[in-house]
Design goal:
alpha+beta, Creatine Amidinohydrolase, five-stranded antiparallel β-sheet, 2 domains, globular
C-alpha cells in the first residue's frame, strides 16, 4: 500500500469515520493516484465529481467517468467503477449513471456508516447515493497528513521543480522586443511540455511593462514587449499530478536604478529566508522576517510570502502573518518575496524549498537575472542575481 493511502486512512480514522469520500481532484490524485486532466475543469461528460473512497484499513475504491478511463488505469484503487458518461449513439442520463456507479461500488466494498467528506465538493447527489449515517469534515485532518511528503512525493516535486526551472531558462532566451507576451509564454510552455513528455497544465503569471508587473498578477496577453520593459514570469506546471512553482523577474535591456532597488529587496529577502528556514520555525515568524527585509528597503508586497505545494499548487501551511503552524522536515514550501513600485515596475523571485533536518535547500534552483541585454534574435541573459 502506498504511504499516501495509509496517511489518508489515518485521516479518516482520526475523524471517527468509517469511510472517507474524497472529491477534490488533488485529493483523488494524492490517495488514489488517479491523475485526470484538469485544464478544462470537470468534464462536461461527468455526472458528479470523480470520487475516491477509503476506509480506516486503507481499502480504496474509485468512481470515474469513461472519459477518465486512461487515468483510472494508473490508479492503485482496489476497485474501480468506470461509468458511461461520454457517448453519441443514445442519450445518457449522467446523474443517474453516476449514482448507479456509486451504488455499485458501495455494494461491492460495503461502504456505509459515518463518512469523512470534503464539504466544498461533496454534492447532494453523492450524499443521496451514499445515504450516510452522518458526515464529518476531513479537510483539517487530511491537510496535516499531506503537509510532509513521502519519498515518492519528494521525487515528483523535484521533477516538477525542474520543469519550472526549464521554463524560466526558456523565458530568458525567448523574451525579446516585438514578441507578444503570448508568443513568449507559448515557447515557455512548449519547453516545459517537452521536458515533461506530456500535456502540462500551467498556472501563474506572465507580465511585461511597468504597469502590469507593478500590479503583480495576470495572465499573458497580446501586449508586445519593448526595450526597457520589466518582465515577470511566474510559472507553476503540473507534472505527473504534482505541481512545481517558480518566479523570475528581469528587464529587457538596461534596468533603471529604481528597478535594481526592487530586485535587490526581493533577492535579499529570499536569501534571508534560505538562511533561517528550518524545522520548528513558525510560518508567521518566517513571513514577518521576509517582509521585514523588503520593508527595510522601502517596499512591500500585497500577497503571501509563500505556500506549501504538492498534489495541489497551494497547500497548508501558507506562509502568512496569521499562520501559527511550525515548519517540519519533509515539507516543500514556495518562498516568493516581491517588491513593487508603479514608477519602476515589479519584481518577484521564487524558489521551491525543501525543508530538511537542520535547515533547507532549493529543490531545483535556477539563476535570477536582472536583465536581458542582447535584444537580437539570439538573446543572451546577463546581469546575474542569486
Amino acid at each position: 500500500m502506498d504511504e499516501r493511502l495509509q496517511r489518508a486512512a489515518e485521516a479518516v480514522r482520526s475523524c471517527g469515520a468509517d469511510w472517507g469520500a474524497f472529491t477534490n481532484f488533488d485529493s483523488v490524485v494524492y490517495l488514489a493516484n488517479h491523475i485526470a486532466p484538469i485544464e478544462a475543469g470537470q468534464s462536461p461528460f461527468a455526472g458528479g465529481p470523480t470520487a475516491a473512497f477509503v476506509n480506516c484499513d486503507g481499502v480504496c475504491g474509485l468512481v470515474a467517468p469513461n472519459v477518465e478511463a486512461a487515468a483510472a488505469a494508473g490508479s492503485w484503487a482496489d476497485t474501480k467503477i468506470i461509468y458511461e458518461a461520454f457517448g453519441f449513439e443514445r442519450p445518457i442520463d449522467l446523474v443517474a449513471s453516476y449514482a448507479a456507479a456509486v451504488e455499485r461500488l458501495t455494494s461491492r466494498l460495503g461502504i456505509a456508516g459515518v463518512f469523512a467528506v470534503e464539504a466544498e465538493s461533496f454534492t447532494s447527489e453523492l450524499a443521496e447515493a451514499l445515504k450516510p449515517k452522518r458526515v464529518v469534515p476531513v479537510r483539517e485532518a487530511l491537510k496535516r497528513v499531506r503537509a510532509t511528503k513521502t519519498d515518492e512525493e519528494k521525487q515528483l516535486l523535484r521533477r516538477s521543480a525542474r520543469a519550472a526551472a526549464v521554463g524560466q531558462e526558456t523565458f530568458y532566451r525567448a523574451a525579446r522586443p516585438g514578441r507578444s507576451e503570448l508568443d513568449v509564454f507559448a515557447e515557455i510552455r512548449a519547453a516545459i511540455e517537452n521536458f515533461a513528455g506530456e500535456r502540462t497544465p500551467i498556472t501563474g503569471d506572465f507580465l511585461s511593462g511597468k504597469v502590469r508587473t507593478a500590479a503583480s498578477a495576470g495572465w499573458p496577453i497580446g501586449r508586445r514587449l519593448e526595450p526597457g520593459d520589466p518582465l515577470m514570469s511566474d510559472l507553476a506546471p503540473r507534472v505527473g499530478g504534482y505541481w512545481g512553482d517558480s518566479c523570475s523577474s528581469s528587464v529587457l535591456g538596461e534596468p533603471s536604478a529604481g528597478y535594481l532597488k526592487l530586485f535587490k529587496a526581493a533577492e535579499d529577502a529570499l536569501r534571508h529566508a534560505l538562511d533561517i528556514i528550518r524545522p520548528g520555525l513558525i510560518a508567521a515568524d518566517l513571513d514577518a522576517e521576509v517582509r521585514g527585509v523588503v520593508a527595510k528597503a522601502g517596499f512591500a508586497y500585497p500577497h503571501h510570502t509563500g505556500h506549501s505545494i504538492g498534489a495541489s499548487v497551494h497547500e497548508w501551511p501558507r506562509i502568512t502573518p496569521y499562520e501559527k503552524a511550525r515548519l517540519e522536515s519533509g515539507m516543500f514550501v514556495m518562498i516568493e518575496p516581491g517588491a513593487y513600485d508603479p514608477s519602476a515596475g515589479g519584481v518577484r523571485l521564487e524558489w521551491m524549498i525543501e525543508i530538511i533536518p537542520g535547515g533547507c535547500r532549493p529543490a531545483a534552483p535556477f539563476e535570477f537575472r536582472t536583465n536581458i541585454f542582447d535584444l537580437g534574435a539570439n538573446a543572451t541573459p546577463s546581469g546575474r542575481g542569486v
